[in-house]
Design goal:
By secondary structure, the protein is mainly alpha-helical. The chain is 46% helix and 7% strand. The protein is built from 7 helices and 4 strands. The protein has helices at 2-7, 17-33, 36-39, 70-79, 92-103, 111-129, 133-143; strands spanning 14-15, 51-52, 57-60, 63-66. Strands 1-2 form a two-stranded parallel sheet. The protein is globular, with a radius of gyration of 19 Å. Mean pLDDT is 79; it is low at 156-171.
C-alpha cells in the first residue's frame, strides 16, 4: 500500500473492517515475512493500516463497486456457474486438468472454490483457538502438509501468543 500511497498521495486508503483488523493485528508478524532479506529494497519498513469502510462498497466514476470478504466472494463466484475457475496457485496435476478442460469443453474444473472455502474456514477456526503462532502453523501443516508456508504467509516466525479478544470480527 505504500507504493499506492506514494503514487496517489491525495487518495485515502480504505478496506473492509475485517481486513483492517487483520492488518492491525498481524502487522508485526508480517514485517518478518516482508523482510529486507526476502524483498530487498522493496521491503515494507512500516505497514500502513487503511481506514475501515463504513459500507462494503466504493463509488468510482459514478459506479458502485461492491466489496466482499473471502467467504462471500467465493459464494458469489460459485453462483456464476463457471465451467472453469483458474486458481492463483496450483500443482502441476491441476495445471494438467485445466489444460484438458480447455481442450475438452465437456469437462469442468471449479473444485478450487470448495477447497479454498474449506481452507479459509479451517484457518479461521484455528486462528481463533490457537494459543500461539506456532500452534497455528503446526495445525495448518498437519491438515495441509503440501502448502508452502512462506508462499502463503502462514509462518509467523514463532511470535508469542497475542490476545485476540475484540480484534477480529465479521466483514
Amino acid at each position: 500500500m505504500r507504493v499506492l500511497e506514494q503514487a496517489f498521495p491525495e487518495v485515502q486508503m480504505v478496506a473492509l473492517p475485517g481486513v483492517v483488523r487483520d492488518i492491525a493485528f498481524t502487522r508485526a508478524d508480517k514485517l518478518g515475512a516482508w523482510s529486507d532479506e526476502r524483498f530487498g529494497s522493496n521491503a515494507v519498513g512500516r505497514p500502513m493500516i487503511p481506514l475501515p469502510l463504513a459500507k462494503p462498497h466504493l463509488e468510482l466514476e459514478r459506479e458502485t463497486v461492491l466489496l466482499f470478504g473471502y467467504g462471500e466472494a467465493l459464494s458469489r463466484l460459485k453462483g456464476f456457474n463457471a465451467r472453469v475457475v483458474i486458481p492463483g496457485h496450483c500443482s502441476e496435476r491441476i495445471l494438467g486438468l485445466l489444460e484438458e478442460a480447455a481442450r475438452n469443453k465437456s469437462l469442468s474444473y471449479t473444485s478450487c472454490l470448495d477447497w479454498t472455502r474449506k481452507y479459509i474456514d479451517f484457518y479461521e477456526e484455528v486462528y481463533e483457538n490457537a494459543k500461539s503462532a506456532q500452534e497455528l502453523v503446526t495445525r495448518l501443516r498437519e491438515r495441509y502438509p503440501t502448502i508452502k508456508g512462506k508462499d502463503f504467509a502462514v509462518e509467523c516466525d514463532g511470535d508469542p501468543p497475542r490476545e485476540r479478544k475484540d480484534v477480529r470480527g465479521d466483514d
